[in-house]
Each structure stands twice: as structure tokens, then as C-alpha cells.
From TrEMBL:
It comes from Dongia sedimenti. The lineage of its organism: Bacteria, Pseudomonadati, Pseudomonadota, Alphaproteobacteria, Rhodospirillales. Pfam families: tRNA_edit (PF04073). PANTHER family: CYTOPLASMIC PROTEIN. This is YbaK/EbsC family protein. It comes from the Bacteria. InterPro entries: YbaK/aa-tRNA-synt-asso_dom_sf, YbaK/aa-tRNA-synth-assoc-dom.
Amino acid sequence: MLTEIKEFSASTRTSADAAAAIGCSVAQIAKSLVFRAKPSGRAILVMASGANRVDEKKLAAALGETIGKADAEFVRAETGFAIGGVSPVGHGIKLKTFIDEDLMVLPEIWAAAGSPNSVFRLTPQDLLRVTEGQILALKA
């Protein structure tokens, strides 16, 4: 997968901001959401379509653990990135990753590239390959 990182002067922290900066649909934004599994305490990465809310009950059922929100300190400690810039790759540890099935039908998607104002383009198949994620129906 050969890709280029695009940096913007404006924030691409939210799906709507990123879509506006790129000129794509909000659905094409692969937003990175980090959850904290309970009781294990491990970080769980969800790559969701920017147009969707994640059904946390579906996520917990697939994981086999309850989940909770991850605060900014936990996200940075586990991923190496700040909230709003969490990339699907490049973490210090291997994260259990779930991919929203709605992303898989799109020809191309955009994901955070490590900062709140940078993104990169990839295909859903590239996302699946580089994250070794599990495709899941996550839409609430």
C-alpha cells in the first residue's frame, strides 16, 4: 500500500471537518474510536464510518467483554496518538481492531494520519489488511 499523507491548516479532528477538507462524503471517513475493555483493561480500536454511531452493545458482544469509554490519557498511552488523530496503524502495541462493515462497500476511505489535521487515503481492503481487523456490523 503506497499512500501519501495530506495535511490541512484546518482541523480534521471530526468526521465532518475531515470530509469538508478532503471533499469527500462523511461516510468515507474511517474514524478511529478507542474503547477500554473491562475487566481486561485492554484498548480496543474501532474503525467506523464517519456517518455511523457505534452500537457499543454489538461491540461488547463481539469482544466478549464489556466496554467503556477511553479517556485522552488512556488513548495516548495505548496508541501513541492524541484523540482526533488516532491512526489505524503505527501503534506501539497490537490492538484488537474491529472494522465497520459499512466501510467495506466504499471504493476509497480516509483515515487519520497521526495528528488532528492530517489524513491518508486507502481502500477498505488495505485497512483490513494493515489492521488485521475483524469486520463487524457496528452501526447503532
